[in-house]
């Protein structure tokens, strides 16, 4: 059997209907939740790219710091060698001073001034050496802190990637299970596709309902039972059931029919064991067609129920919100 994978609409617009205000508010909240989840995923991907760029910049800074550390160490070695030379010269000057103790007062004064100048130079260079050593130690500490921060961010990226991989794997497994459970149905009556992190099961009116009715016929009940057998064992999955119509009849009637059909499907799924807290129903009337309503074939495609399955994103959202 061939399964048609059609192009989905990522976020379905909830429009005003003749259902109750409470029902409409519930549908609006469901739509907002889907919007936030999708934006959260985009934010995860953007943040991953930013963290990768930050890691590259930190690695470049670390290389610069190491080069600067090498230069400072060479400078310190040069200063130490100069200090040793100055100490030797100072010792020579002290010896000369002892030899010139009997010399004239003017010569003695000149020698004293030279000794004091050399001592001042030694003290200054020693202070410079200590200052450079402190600066080098601070740079080493900063480099270690940057490396630790980079490691923590890389760990966070790995955890987020792991959660996203688990989510993709769960979707693929769910799609495979649905295809196996629903094998044997015509592609015109039933199709399964995966788009934008969700699995869409599209079921035609011909499979589920008599024309103009919201009561599921026996063959539709059987298909929904097979579908429920897969869904009721799923964890952390949100299920949105959407009713769709063609443009025949008034907007009011089509709103009512699409909502009632979605509700009928939800009732069967929950009766067959799908947890009620996982499922919600929505009516779209004829406002989200798959094909043109100008032809009989297009209208037939538009008269459908779509069951949209999306993994819950609580773990990913909690990680983003906590900044871990």
Shape by Cα distribution: rod-shaped
**Which CATH C-level class of the largest domain is it?**
Alpha Beta
Distance between the termini: 46 Å
Reported by name, the CATH topology of the largest domain is 60s Ribosomal Protein L30, Chain: A
Give the fraction of residues assigned to helices: 55-70%
CATH superfamily of the largest domain: OmpA-like domain
Q: What radius of gyration results from the CA coordinates? A: 38 Å
Largest sheet: 5 strands, mixed
* Total number of distinct structural domains: 2
Percent of residues in β-strands: 5-15%
Question: Which series of helices and strands comes N to C?
Answer: HHEEHHEHEHEH
Query: Helix segment count?
Result: 7
Helix- and strand-based class? alpha+beta
How does CATH name the architecture of the largest domain?
2-Layer Sandwich
Sheet with most strands: strand arrangement: 1-2-5-3-4
Instruction: Return the average pLDDT rounded to an integer.
Output: 84
User: How many runs of DSSP E, i.e. beta strands?
Assistant: 5
How would you characterize the overall build of this protein?
A hairpin with a 2-residue loop joins strand 1 (190-195) and strand 2. The chain has 2 domains: 21-41 and 185-322, OmpA-like domain (60s Ribosomal Protein L30, Chain: A), CATH 3.30.1330.60; 53-165. The longest helix has 79 residues, at 21-99. It is rod-shaped and about 130 Å long. The chain is built from 7 helices and 5 strands; from the N terminus they run ααββααβαβαβα. A 5-stranded mixed beta sheet has the order 1-2-5-3-4. The protein has helices at residues 21-99, 105-181, 205-208, 218-231, 251-271, 296-302, 314-322, and strands at residues 190-195, 198-204, 237-244, 279-283, 304-311. With 324 residues, it is an alpha+beta fold. Helices cover 65% and strands 10% of the residues.
């Amino acid at each position: 059997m061939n399964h048609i994978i059609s192009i989905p609409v990522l976020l379905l617009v909830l429009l005003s209907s003749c259902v109750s205000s409470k029902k409409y508010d519930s549908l609006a909240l469901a739509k907002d939740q889907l919007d936030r989840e999708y934006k959260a995923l985009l934010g995860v991907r953007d943040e991953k790219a930013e963290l990768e760029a930050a890691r590259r910049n930190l690695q470049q800074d670390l290389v610069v710091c190491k080069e600067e550390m090498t230069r400072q160490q060479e400078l310190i070695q040069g200063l130490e060698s100069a200090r040793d030379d100055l100490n030797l010269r100072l010792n020579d000057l002290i010896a000369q001073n002892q030899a010139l103790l009997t010399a004239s007062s003017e010569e003695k004064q000149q020698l004293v001034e030279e000794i004091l100048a050399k001592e001042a130079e030694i003290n200054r260079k020693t202070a410079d050496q200590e200052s450079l050593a402190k600066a080098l130690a601070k740079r080493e500490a900063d480099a270690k802190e940057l490396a630790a921060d980079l490691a923590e961010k890389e760990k966070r990226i790995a955890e987020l990637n792991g959660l996203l991989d688990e989510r993709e794997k769960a979707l693929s497994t769910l799609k495979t299970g649905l295809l196996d459970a629903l094998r044997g149905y015509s592609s015109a009556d039933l199709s399964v596709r995966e788009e934008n992190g969700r699995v869409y099961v599209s079921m035609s009116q011909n499979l589920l309902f008599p024309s103009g009715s919201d009561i599921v016929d026996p063959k539709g009940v059987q298909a929904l039972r097979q579908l429920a057998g897969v869904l009721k064992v799923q964890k952390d999955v949100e299920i949105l059931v959407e009713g769709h119509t063609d443009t025949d009849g008034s907007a009011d009637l089509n709103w009512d029919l699409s909502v009632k059909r979605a509700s009928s499907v939800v009732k069967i799924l929950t009766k067959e064991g799908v947890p009620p807290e996982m499922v919600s129903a929505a009516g779209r009337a004829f406002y989200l067609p798959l094909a043109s309503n100008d032809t009989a074939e297009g209208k037939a495609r538009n008269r459908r129920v779509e069951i949209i399955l999306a993994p819950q994103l609580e773990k990913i959202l909690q990680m983003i919100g906590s900044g871990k």
